[in-house]
Every structure is written in structure tokens, then in C-alpha cells.
Amino acid sequence: MPEVRELDRKGKELSKTLNRIMTESRKVLVGQPEMIRGLLMGLLTQGHILIEGVPGLAKTLSVMTLSSCMQAKFSRIQFTPDLLPSDIIGTNIYNAKTAEFSIKKGPIFANIILADEINRAAAKVQSALLEAMQEKQVTIGGKTFKLDQPFLVLATQNPIESEGTYTLPEAQVDRFMFKIRVSYPTAEDELEIINRFTQGENPVASAVCKPEDMVMAREAINDVFIDEKIKRYIVDLVFATRYPERYGLKIKNLIQYGASPRASLYLTIGSKGNAFLEGRGYVTPDDVKSVAYDVFRHRILVSYEAEAEETTSENIIDEILKNIKVP
After folding, report:
1. Domain with 108 in it: what CATH number?
2. Residues ≥6 apart with Cβ < 8 Å to 256
3. Among 18, 133, 253, 306, which residue's beta carbon has the most beta carbons within 10 A?
């Protein structure tokens, strides 16, 4: 198909820029290739990302490095129990000299937002952020302001502490396109971290592109071709989380709730993004599989029986991917 060949050509050109971002990121970041790729995928597909991992795994450094590579406006919001919604979106300030109100915009007005330890803030603060994520706009004092493009929220949460935290409700977690789990580095990577960051001068990533380039890449992703058979495959994967017995899977007792329709949308968009990163103008089943864990991880709610058997959502995803027929 001529259209697909043209998309292949555009994809290869634009993916070179993205690969340069990954190369520059590796000057600063050691290991964690899944996290770097996931962050790029979020930028490409306009999908917000929830990053989960214990402290000290370079979650914050990864986000800062990505923003510097893009020359993007970056804001870090440290979530604490005393944070207010106005601390995020902004507020009206009264000027006693002029007897007028002026609007002071909050840190949400940036290209990349790092919501550090999002589960430490109260529900009303979380809701203010999530509303901005969904609507891509903020209302302050009756005036509505569009947020800058590209706009991406990367939220981190610490899985090992529950005291003084406010767990994100499932309906709000569902707004995040991906949930990425960050694990400990390997012994070799940790040795490299020691060598790289104990020389007195830390490495710095160079600027590769501008935010406008990422907007162009997003537009190209919309044209990536996906066959109807692969769309049906995506629907089968999602329905297998809701009605596993229809697909011969004996895991019904392990699933409390299956994935929402957002899973189908994000699997499709994520697959296109993965194909684009690979320099292709069409989607393959492997593209779907490569994003399935990050899309499903927080959307499949396991039952008490599964928890008793120490079965995780990732174990269930394994079972689904093994048994659903690939086109």
C-alpha cells in the first residue's frame, strides 16, 4: 500500500529524533530502558503515566532528563498532605493598591508535570490534577485557560508506605494510560551508577528537539495503519479480562473487575506509538503485546482469592496473552 510505505518513510525520519532522545537519556540514566521508553510513549500518544517504585530509583531524574532533551517547560509538584488545589492550578490574587484581582497561574502550566508522590495529597488535590489531565484546561476565577501542548503528567507513588497516604481511587487510576513499575537495577548497572555519579561532576543530557517536534510526531502517529484483525485482537484481549470463560480461561475467580473501555483505546494508541518508535507505519500483534502490561497492570483488579494465592494482575495478563489467538 502506497500510504503505508509513505508512513514508513515518515516514521523512520521522526523515530530518529526519538532514538536520539533515548541515547541522550542514557548519558544520565543507567539501565531502566522500559521506563525511558514508556515516558517517550506517553509523550507520543498524549497519555499520562503513573510510575511506581521504591525511593532512589531515578524516577524524578528520568522525567527531568526527558524534559531537558526536549527543551520543554518542566514543573515538579511535591505532593504533601497540606497541599491545596490552588497550589497546583493557580488562584486569584488581590492587589490592594489597584483594588483588583489578578490571576496567578500555578505549576500545572508547563509541558511536563512531575507529580511526585501523588498518593501523599488529599483527594481534592488529586482530583484537581486529574481534571486538568482529562480536560487539558484549567478554570481560575471563572476564566478558562488552555494548557500548553504537549502536556504530559508523570505521577510517581511509593508502594512501600501506606501511613499518611491517600490511595488513588480505581476510577482515577484508570485515567493514566500506563502504569510503569520500576525495579531495582542489576549489579552491573549499580556499579555503573557508582562510577558515573561519584566523580564530582554529574553527566548532563543535551537538547535534541523542541516541544513542537513532539506535536508533529503525535500527528504522524494518528496515521499509523492498524488492520481490522488487530483491532479485533485488542478487543478480545480486553474482553478476556471481563469474561475469561468465553475464551476458555479458568481465571474468573481471580478477577474482581476487568479492564475498562479505556484499555481498548490505549492499547490501540499505544500499539501505534510502539510501531512509530520502531520506525514502522503499521501495527503488528507484537506492538500490542509490548504495551499490554503497562495498559492492563492497573486496570485488572484482582480478587481476594487471587491475593490469597499471591496472584498478581501481571500473572493474569501472562495467562491472557498466552491463550488469546494472535491474528
Report:
1. 3.40.50.300
2. 301, 302, 303, 304
3. 18
Indicate whether 241 and 213 sit together in one domain.
no
The Cα–Cα gap between 88 and 106 comes to 5
Nearest to 235 by CA among 320, 174, 134: 320
What pLDDT, on a 0 to 100 scale, did the predictor assign at position 237? 95
Instruction: Enter the C-alpha cell of residue 76.
Output: 515538579
Express each pLDDT in 140-177 by its tens digit. 877 888 888 888 888 888 776 666 566 777 777 888 89
Say if residue 129 is in the same domain as residue 155.
yes
Measure CA 236 to chain center: 23
Residue 160 domain boundaries: 17-217
User: Within 71-163, where are the H helices?
Assistant: 86-89, 123-135
> Would you say 161 and 58 are in contact if contact means Cβ atoms under 8 Å apart?
no
Rg of the chain, C-alpha, whole Å: 21
Could you tell me which residues come within 8 angstroms of residue 203 by beta carbon, excluding any fewer than 6 positions away?
Answer: 27, 28, 196
Give how far the C-alpha of residue 264 lies from the chain's centroid of Cα atoms, to the nearest Å: 16
**Helix and strand totals (H; E) in the chain:** 13, 11
Other beta carbons within 10 Å of 20: 14
User: Is residue 109 a part of any domain in this protein?
Assistant: yes
Compute the Cα dihedral for 55, 58, 62, 64 and give only its sign: positive
Do residues 157 and 118 touch, judged by C-beta distance below 8 A? Answer: yes
pTM: 0.84
Residue 104 has pLDDT above 80, yes or no: yes
Note the Cα 50 to chain centre separation in Å: 5
